[in-house]
Specification:
By secondary structure, the protein is of the alpha+beta class. It contains eleven helices and seven strands. Helix 5 crosses helix 9, helix 5 packs across helix 11 and helix 10 packs across helix 11. It is elongated and about 80 Å long.
């Protein structure tokens, strides 16, 4: 968790290419935004000051005009709430992007970098999210291992339908156990199968809820915990298969994963084995 929290905005921030109202045409600016995939571009007025950002969609709307209209009618003004340091942790950026479509990083020449929700699709951000999901999955597995005995596992396996993948995995585990081979039962399960096992154990669910609450997790209601685990599982699987994810949903899942990972790691130290 310490390593994850050391990853900073500088890993994701795009160098800001400005639109110069005095030199650019709306069409030229729009074509640059299209070519580089910029959602927002800093707008430099005729005095050389950058106080606003203009969106690609607005540039597209203006592309048939020869010159830009009054700068005060363009884009959105940049205020203090739009500023973030390049050295801020990524998890702070994820939380800040909940309220703002873009954030700016200042340098010696004013606005030098821009970050948007779409930048959460950057490989660095996705590795951050995937790593946190692995932490959550590992904590879930540890909780199951500490809450259930080998006899409990066997009883659960025996109650499942033959077509259930958890039963199939369990039967393989029992055969290997008899030969003293392979991983422990929980370690051999997928994230989804661990959740299915959690659903079968009231003790494990209670313990996991206690751990989350001990870690000061704000959403510690048991039904929220189960729902959040499912969202984290979906995010992890999507990232693992390089599936395209909606930026707003990915942002929400990343924040959720960061908060729960921290809570489970911290809470495990407060809950007796």
């Amino acid at each position: 968790m310490v390593a994850a929290d050391r990853l900073t905005v500088s890993l994701l921030a795009q160098a800001a290419e400005t639109v110069h109202v005095g030199n650019d045409t709306p069409l030229a600016a729009f074509e640059r935004a299209e070519t580089h995939g910029y959602d927002w571009m800093p707008l430099r007025d005729r005095d050389g000051q950058v106080t606003r950002l203009v969106s690609r969609s607005e540039l597209q709307r203006l592309r048939d005009q020869r010159t830009f209209p009054d700068v005060r009618r363009l884009g959105r003004p940049i205020s203090v709430r739009h500023l973030i340091s390049l050295e801020s942790p990524i998890h702070v950026l994820v939380r800040r992007l909940a309220d703002e479509p873009f954030l700016c990083c200042l340098g010696p020449n004013g606005v030098e970098h821009v970050v948007t929700r779409w930048d959460l699709a950057h490989p660095g951000a996705q590795q951050f999210a995937f790593g946190l999901a692995l932490v959550v999955e590992a904590e879930l597995g540890a909780c199951l291992t500490n809450s259930m005995t080998e006899s409990d596992f066997r009883k659960v396996i025996a109650t499942l339908d033959e077509s259930n993948t958890l039963r199939t995995r369990g039967e393989k585990w029992m055969r290997r156990t008899s030969r003293k081979e392979g991983l422990g039962f929980v370690e051999s399960l997928t994230f989804g199968q661990k959740m299915a096992l959690l659903d079968k154990s009231a003790d494990a669910r209670r313990r996991l809820s206690e751990i989350a609450r001990g870690g000061l997790w704000e959403r510690h209601q048991p039904h929220r915990l189960r729902a959040d685990l499912d969202e984290i599982r979906k995010m992890r699987n999507g990232l693992g298969h390089a599936a395209q994810q909606v930026p707003a949903r990915l942002r929400t899942r990343m924040e959720m994963t960061h908060d729960l990972a921290h809570a489970l790691v911290a809470g495990r130290r407060t809950v007796l084995p």
